[in-house]
Amino acid sequence: MSDSANQRSLTRRGFIVASGAGALSFAAACSSKHSTASGAGTKNALGLTLQSGAASATDQYYVQAFDSTGASYKALDFYESVYSRAPLADQFNIPLVRLDPNYSIVPGAATKWEQAADGNSWTFHIRPGIMWSDGKELTAADYIETLRYSADPKHAWDFSWFWSGVIKNYTEAVAGKVPTSEIGVKQGTDKYALVIQTEGPIAYVPSACLYTTPLSAAALSKYGSGSYNINPATCVTCGPYTLTKFDPTATIVLGPNKKYSGPFAPPIAALVGKIYAGGDMLPRFQTGEIDTISVTPLDLKIAAKNSRTKNLHLYKNPNDFEIWYTFFDTKKAPFNNVKVRQALAHCVDRDSLVKSLLAPLATPAYGYLTPGYPFAVEDPLKPLTNYDPGKAKSLLAAAGYPNGKGFPQVTFNWWANAVSNTESVVQALTQNWNKQLGINIKLQELDKTTFYARMNKKPTQIQMGFVSYGMDYFDASNMLSVYKSGGRHNWDNAQYDGLLAKGAAESKAAQRQEIYTEAQTLMTDQAPAVFVFHLLYGYYYAPYIKGSALAKNKDGYDGIQWPGFGATSNSLQQLYVANSVSSWPRQKQSGVL
Amino acid sequence: MIAYLAKRFLTLLLVMLVVTMLIFGLMHAVPGGPFDQTQQPLRGPALANITRKYGLDQPIWRQYLHWLWALLHGDLGIPFEQPTMSVTQLIRKAWPITLIVGGITIGISYVGGLIMGCIAALKHNTWLDWLLTSAVSTAGVALPNYVVGFLLISVFSVKLGWLPAGGWGQPEDLILPVIAFSLYPMALMARYTRASTLEVTYADYVRMGRARGLSERRITLRYILRTALIPLITIMGPNIPNILTGSIFIEATFALPGLGSYFTTASLHRDYPLILALVLIVAVLWGTCYILSDIAYTLVDPRVRLEGLSR
Fold first, then answer.
1. CB within 8 Å of B29: residues ≥ 6 apart
2. Which of A74, A230, A249 sits opposite B93 (nearest CB)?
3. Cβ–Cβ under 8 Å, residues A127 and A192
């Protein structure tokens, strides 16, 4: 009995001791886990002291996923190829200017810039002491040689339109009429002063200079092209990263540039681009393979049912301010009649359409420019495009088609885009037009390449089509120029062209706003297009991805804003991996840091 | 046999020549070109520069002859999609991945399908037959492989966390794609094996064998299966090129950097050199597989003789 009692007592004691030891070990294990993951106060691979709450320096890498379907990757530099740039491009340099999350132009390599008194040139002052990894200093010569290379007919740069009509003699150089040395890009008073001479007074040059991501003049001269940057052995960088691995079918890894001497050292010291030939990205995010994903409406539904992702915050922003719209060939009947176009514009229930088919990743489009984009207006345009079937019928009757009688059969071309749910959208639009107006619009799907080939033919081979446009640079002159006479679509309007020219030359913001409001009103009223929706991009970030780069901006958009995580944005300095990384099944990337 | 093979391979060469001419003409006939842009189309001088750079400013017949001449010298050109490597290098890089996945798929699905079909036939009208024929093989034929792929990812990657959701580089990356890719050919093989085995099981010569007291094992292996294999050659042959050139869906679902995706992207990009190279691969594989199928018939069935060898 006593033995038994003694045994029980020992067992109880043993249990208490064991429990205590277990609890202590658990606490120790937990604390050791956190202490292992914490990197606050230590330096990352770029020599930057990590902030409070940051994970260890070896965790400071960022894994992004890229879908290579329909993409070609042959360069890592804007001036080598724009449309065939690989993921993680443009990280080996510092552009003259950058964008902050509120879309304001902030200093990059240039600390200041000014327009000449006659308005015909801009001077950018480059900060001294930024070194390339080959030991040479970043100077105006790098920007000059890069821009000359872009105009070289032998290079056949795929984005040469960008500087045509902006930089003096650029168009002539691309056409081979003048040597590239004669384009309006010169050194100023010293090697740090870059002068850009323009074709006339152009106010938006600083905005366009976001895309002055230079190649190294020395490397360009040595290798003859910008392709040296896709080989880790020949990569020359003045940005915080250097090329570690370039396999455009699977992985691209940018490691820390240990020789980095620029002013923008980021907490994240390495970037990993996982390239997938299509497929579903959500499981890759859920299993910790990647740190962030851009989600589709379908992903949102699936994520809501998963215990790991259902409580994640959905970040939303317009990224490149893409609008989807229906365009017309306004030179041919029936769309040469403005009343027909206006009738169709008033016969789109944008709010319902967005709510039922696209929410929360779109907003109704009453104007061409997305709210938040420079000089965008919305309210003054609503009466011109609001949903009013009665008014639409009256307009159609006034155009000579009462109740749709006599309206010819029209073909409405489109191409499938899953992110924008184009199939459902064009069906909803067509059904409503045909039903409400008694007309006969027939849908015809084309493959993307055929669609654009036919649309871009002069004159266009598409009578009516559904298409999108995302900005190239952050100024109204860019998006609005899409509808310039002789531009993307078959609509000519001298008054509109005049307003665009006036707006581009005007340097005062208030006056520019007035001019661009007038241009937007004119365009909306003349309805060369029916605006349907502005696309919003949705993002999930793993809970350990933190930083002010994700916070809401002045327009209420959050997540990493356009132009994304890179040298052209100051988000680079505002994102880090937090020590909560251990709470997520993040897959360790070996050999990255 | 040599004369027969030489004749067949010469015919194959002729077929390939005609196929490449047709494809060359067709791909230039469809609207759009490799350097058409979606946002801002290249303007006059820029477009002229880029088309000149790739020789696309030449007449189409000259472009074809130039391509053919280069081909005869072992040069398949530079893909517009990835001009940093040649078409040959691109194929050398991507195809082995497809071949590994396809090879394992062929092994598993053909052997598995054969075994399943035999068991179902030998145990026909039993619960085992029902399970293998109705459940497994019907599901394998009816379910598209990308649906199977998503199901496998949901269960084994997301829920259980046992296997990667996709990618390439480690042995475990192969498991889910191969399972998803194998189901259809395995089901197909099982169904055909069952049908042909059942047909033979009641043949007179099999009954005769039983009447003579031969063992069931001997009857099954030597009398039933050997004869049942003949129609399977018809099924197996054409399936091999399909599997060895990759499944667009499987490679996309599991993010395999194989050859499959290039079949669509090359067409979408109007990547002429790559399209031609892929067409050549498919044509050669199909032609070769048909020739090998013909030879296999003669080996399995002595009654079959190749043309020119029967007398």
1. none
2. A249
3. yes
Burial (CB count <10 Å: 0-12, 13-18, 19+), residue A420 = buried
Asked if B165 lies within 8 A of A69 by C-beta distance, the reply is no
Q: Which residues of A touch B147 (CB under 8 A)?
A: none
Q: Tell me: the pLDDT tens digits for A61-80?
A: 999 999 887 677 889 999 99
Ramachandran class of A76: left when φ > 0, alpha when ψ lies in -120 to 50, beta otherwise: alpha
Q: Cα separation of A331 and A501, whole Å?
A: 23
Model confidence band, residue A13 (pLDDT cutoffs 50, 70, 90): low
Q: What is the pTM of this model?
A: 0.82
User: Cα(A290)–Cα(A502) distance, rounded to whole angstroms?
Assistant: 47
Q: Which of A533, A233, A231, A523 is nearest to A364 (CA)?
A: A533
Of B169, B167, B185, the residue nearest B104 (C-alpha): B185
**Quick check: ipTM above 0.90?**
no
CB A505 within 8 A of CB A202: yes
Asked whether the CA dihedral B268, B274, B278, B283 is positive or negative, the reply is positive
Give the nearest partner residue to A280 out of B41, B42, B150, using CB atoms. B150
Token reading at B223: 């009398």
| Long-range contacts at A66-69 (CB < 8 A, ≥ 24 apart) | A66/A273, A66/A274, A66/A275, A66/A276, A67/A276, A67/A277, A67/A278, A67/A279, A67/A281, A68/A248, A68/A249, A68/A275, A68/A276, A68/A277, A68/A278, A68/B261, A68/B265, A69/A277, A69/A278, A69/B252, A69/B261, A69/B264, A69/B265
Distance CA A473, CA A161 (A): 13
Residues in chain B: 311
The mean per-residue pLDDT over the stretch B136-156 comes to 89
Give residue for tokens 């039983």: B210
Element (DSSP H or E) covering residue A305 = none
Question: A268 vs A294, A333, A545, CA distance in Å?
Answer: 20, 57, 10
In angstroms, the CA A105 to CA A97 distance is 6
- The answer, yes or no, to whether residue A329 has pLDDT greater than 60, is yes
Kindly state whether A448 is in contact with chain B, defined as any CB-CB distance less than 8 angstroms.
yes
Report residue A178: phi and psi, to 5°.
Answer: -135, 155
A453 → chain B, closest CA residue: B32
**A59 φ, ψ to 5°?**
-95, -5
B28 touches A at CB < 8 Å: no
Residue A519 tokens, joined: 């241009």
Within a 10 A sphere around the Cβ of B103, how many other Cβ atoms?
A: 15
pLDDT at A70: 67
CA atoms of B68 and A155, how far apart (whole Å)? 27
